[in-house]
Amino acid sequence: MQKFRKNTVTIIFLLIVMLGITGCWNRRELDTLAFVSGLGIDKAREPGKLQLTAQIIKPGEIKAPEAGGGGMGGSKPYWNISQIGNTVFSTVRAMTLKSNRKLFFPHNEVIIFSQDIAREGVRKYIDFLIRDPEFRRLAWIVVAKDKASEVLETKTELAKLPARNIAELIKARSATSEVSAVNMQEFLTRLMSKTTAPIASLIEVSAKEKTAQLTGTAVFKDDKLVGFLNKTETRGLLWVINEIKSGIITVSCPDGKGKASLEIIQASSKIKPEIKDNDIHITVEVKAEGHLGSQMCLEDLTQIPAWNSLEKRQSEAIRSEVLAALKKARQLNADIFGFGEAVHKKYSRLWKDIEDQWDEFFPNIEVTVKVESKLRRSGLTVKPPRPE
Amino acid sequence: MLEKGKISSSQLTFLIAGFTLGSSLILSPGLVAGHDAWLAVLAGLGSSLLIAFIYTTLAVKFPGKTLVQINDIIFGPYLGKLITIGYLWYFFHLASLVLRNFSDFFVGLIYPETPIIVFLIFITLTCASAVRNGIEVIARTSIILLFVTACATFLTTVLLVKDMEFTNLLPVLDLPLKQFIKASYAATTFPFGETVVFLMVIAFLENTKQAKPSVTLGLILAGILLVVASVRNISVLGVTEPIHTYDSYQAVRLINIGEILTRLEIIVVGNFLAMGFLKISVLYYGTVLGTAQLLNLRSYLPLVLPIGILMVILSILQFESTIENIHFAFDIYPYYVIPFQFGIPLFSLIVAVVRGLPKKAKEGSK
Asked: Does residue B97 surpass a pLDDT of 90?
């Protein structure tokens, strides 16, 4: 009898524990949550205030088949909710006054800053986005040339959600390597560095078609937007920071009668700082490999002299891209390459004297760009399609 | 005998390693040293091996005796009991600290709306069950749990390799020596020096002679895992590491393998908790067993729940916020533990040697 009672008590206790530990204190059902896929931060008209735009996925609409090209026919598969407020957090919470479901951020893919808010500094907004456990560090950081809310309203053809579309555009950048892709963690790393300037993807809305388009890189100084890199300069930057995945380099044929496109297949780079006679000297070494992708001239490029000349032209093109980025960086006086960190890591003692004056050093640093590039293959053909 | 269980030397190794990993998996040691934290952990490991040598020498000198009995022998019934009370407080306090750390971790990151008391009670109940079953059971679970945790640590490291920037570790020793010593000292006291509680456990080792190698091996094992975790965190998080409350957790959150293997942190958190369970259980066990021996009880079982309840209460009362907790952990704890981790053990050993204790030397010689 005693044993029976003991067992009963144990079983009841276990049942209570099992009920108690299955989940959290509260429950959040799927139909009580509003999944946010993109967040835009704009300046509100009222001074000192900000306008947040959250793109909420409409689960019912997104599944609808034959809706006709990303929500053209039926209603949109997303809902952009806007709210004006003082801080990011309070504004996010205030959105629940308009949305019957609580905004849920773990699936947020992009964070878009408008140009004017980025010019004023983004650190105060970033804080909440890294402190709150709901946000993930893998969201992309994007600067909109104009308003962030407009970017979230852009038309999409293949993707259903504008935010998703942007995230996919960013992921597809490796085909050209002409735009930067920076997630929150990388942005934060640069933001917290004493010398390295943060960068972000730059996005523009085309006036006519209302579609979003990546157009380069936004450059920050400390936490304030100071300028932009165009596509060439961006690729120059990416060569230096070892972020080149692929891309097409266009050079003129050795005979000068047409263009050839070279596809980058592999690239790597190193930044080597050196201090000689109280002067900082940086050597950037870029190694690249490419294919001959297409030629528009009639010359037989696979002859050794032409091939070598093509290789040289490839190296020269890469070099000029790097130099273009360097020129822009000097102009903006923003160390987007991380030269400062490289010096710090190698010359930790001397660094303490340089650190505070880095802004004066950076535009005048001597930089040598060494490019070593190879052309490996020529595709399915070796000669252009012409009668011999 | 209050405890009839016996543990093998390999069990002791794993138990020590699990105990040392304990809460240091979530609260990384040596953080003050910035990107040299891993060196601070290594230095902490090195100095803790010396300290552990004191503990094991004491334990081997008095085979089969727990800290409580050793204190009685060395310092006599009155002073010995006073020191014992001090130690019991330390074990008890440390257990409640670890309990609070883990509960804060869960409430802060994963279960924001759950009252902390729920975690405090359930973790304590789980540990209470382990303590009631005795040291043998805790030691056996440690092997399984440590194996899983070691695998998880290595797995997360491998999955993060593509995000690692090993140049983040450079320049090596880029900080004032004073700060590095401070960080290393902090790493010695937390987590390595906390193994002083094993003076309550080594007594139940099957072969006391094995104590030294087992303890050393256990500390080294934990040290390796902590260095791996530290290098992983620094190389992944870089300059952003110091702003995080829980850097390991943040590093693991960044795992993203082809957008398929993501959001793995919850699995890892399970492992963290497993180590926390070991740490709390050993400290809890030390407190309960020590109290029973102090009071000359026939069994320690009646003490398990009351002490557990007190532990929960102390957990709640000791800090108003995690900010106070951090302040305590960084600014007070390293000095608070001096008598428990270094002072008394060293003094005990000296007194024992000077007084020629233990008197019946024959027992230990063969």
From this structure: yes
Structural tokens at position A374: 């190879």
Among A19, A25, A123, which would you mutate to test the B interface (most chain B Cβ atoms within 10 Å of its Cβ)?
Answer: A25
Asked if B243's CB is within 8 angstroms of A185's CB, the reply is no
Tens digit of each residue's pLDDT (9 = 90 or more) over A109-162: 999 999 999 999 999 999 999 999 889 899 999 999 999 999 999 988 888 899
Complete DSSP assignment for A131-171: HSTTS-TTSEEEEESS-HHHHTT-B-SSSSSHHHHHHHHHH
Q: For residue A130, give the chain B residue with the closest CA.
A: B244
Whether residue B259 lies inside any domain: the answer is yes
Residues A296 and A259: beta-carbon distance below 8 Å: yes
| Peptide bond before residue B171 is cis, with ω within 30 degrees of 0 | yes
Q: Write down the pLDDT at residue B365.
A: 40
Handedness of CA A173, A175, A177, A182 (dihedral sign): positive
Domain membership of residue B219 as a residue range: 9-365
Kind plus residue range of the DSSP H or E element containing A2: helix A2-20
Chain B residue at shortest CA distance from A17: B122
- Comparing CB atoms, the residue among B167, B256, B263 nearest residue A345 is B167
Does a structural domain hold residue B3? no
Average pLDDT over residues B161-173: 86
Contact: A21, B122; criterion CB under 8 Å:
yes
Contact call for A133 and B254, based on CB within 8 A: no
B214 or B31, which is more confident: B214
* Candidates B174, B240, B243, B266, partner chain A, best to mutate (most A CBs within 10 A): B240
Q: Which of chain B's residues have a Cβ under 8 Å away from the Cβ of A344?
A: 171
Give, in order, the Cα–Cα distances in Å from B196 to each of A26, B50, B53: 40, 12, 11
Mean pLDDT over A165-180 rounds to 91
Is the Cβ of A26 closer than 8 Å to some Cβ of chain B?
A: yes
Q: How far is CA A380 from the centre of its chain?
A: 34
Q: How confident is the model over B307-348, as pLDDT tens digits?
A: 999 999 999 998 888 888 888 888 899 999 999 999 999 999
Asked if the structure places residue B219 within a domain, the reply is yes
Residue B328 falls within a domain, yes or no?
yes
Confidence of residue A383 (pLDDT cuts 50, 70, 90): confident
Task: List residues of B whose CB lies inside 8 A of any A CB.
Answer: 108-115, 118, 122, 125, 167, 170-171, 174, 237-240, 243, 250, 253-254, 256, 262-263
Separation CA B365–CA B306 (nearest Å): 40
Contact B240 A24 (CB under 8 A): no
Q: What is the CATH number of the domain that holds B164?
A: 1.20.1740.10
pLDDT band at B360 (very low <50, low <70, confident <90, very high): low
Q: Which domains does chain A have, with CATH numbers?
A: 27-229 (no CATH), 237-388 (3.30.300.210)
Q: Which two tokens stand for residue B224?
A: 């390796």
* Cβ contact B170–A185 (<8 Å): no
pLDDT in tens, B37-65: 999 999 999 999 999 999 999 999 888 88
**CB of A172 less than 8 A from some CB of B:** no
- A301: amino acid identity, one letter: L
Q: What is the mean pLDDT of residues A165-191?
A: 92
Residue with tokens 């880095």: A358
Q: Decide: residue A54, CB within 10 A, 0-12 exposed, 13-18 middle, 19+ buried.
A: buried
Burial zone of A85 (CB within 10 Å; 0-12 exposed, 13-18 middle, 19+ buried): middle
Of A26, A136, A346, the CB nearest to B113: A26
Q: What's the structural domain count of chain B?
A: 1
A211: which 2 tokens?
């579609």
Residues in chain B with CB shorter than 8 Å from the CB of A25 are 111, 113-115, 118
pTM for the model: 0.87
Q: Does A192 touch chain B (CB under 8 A)?
A: yes
Interchain contact, A24 vs B113, CB within 8 Å:
yes
